[in-house]
Amino acid sequence: MTDPIADYLTRLRNAIKANHRVVEIPASNLKKEITKILFDKGYILNFKFVEDGPQGTIKIALKYDLVNKVNAIKKLQRVSTSGLRKYTGYKDIPRVLNGLGIAVLSTSKGVMTDKEARDLKIGGEVLCYVY
After folding, report:
1. What is the pTM of this model?
2. Which residues have CB under 8 Å from 68's CB, separation 6+?
3. Taking CA 75 as the corner, what is the angle to CA 69 and CA 78, rounded to the nearest 5 degrees?
4. Using CA atoms, how far apart are residues 3 and 88, in angstroms rounded to an integer?
5. By C-alpha distance, which of 116, 7, 10 is closest to 73?
6. What is the tens place of the pLDDT at every residue in 55-76?
7. FRET pair for 125, CA 20 to 30 Å: which of 25, 95, 105, 111?
8. Which residue, among 110, 80, 106, 85, has the nearest Cα to 9 in the 3D structure?
């Protein structure tokens, strides 16, 4: 697998399109941090790290509006790819839908959202947009 983050986002996207309640994804430390951010910002209902085998898995419970059958995540977009990395300084961190969405960044202080990176005045690699 050349781009594990793109695989992570694609598995989430496919589970949302198929109206699945739970999706299982192979674990890594970066994927765990992105999952924690999605949970903290209210895009997923719950998550669980399962340590089975050498790698482990992440079980993610997706969040749906039960009345309208609409998912909390409208779009997941990979920004920085393995072939073209996108780095940004803290002054140029993009705003997703004028602040309604989040951009997930990998910085020297760890994985964080665009707002947290602006507050700490650090830039980094823009991993994905979520809204």
Report:
1. 0.94
2. none
3. 150
4. 20
5. 10
6. 999 999 999 988 888 899 999 9
7. 25
8. 80
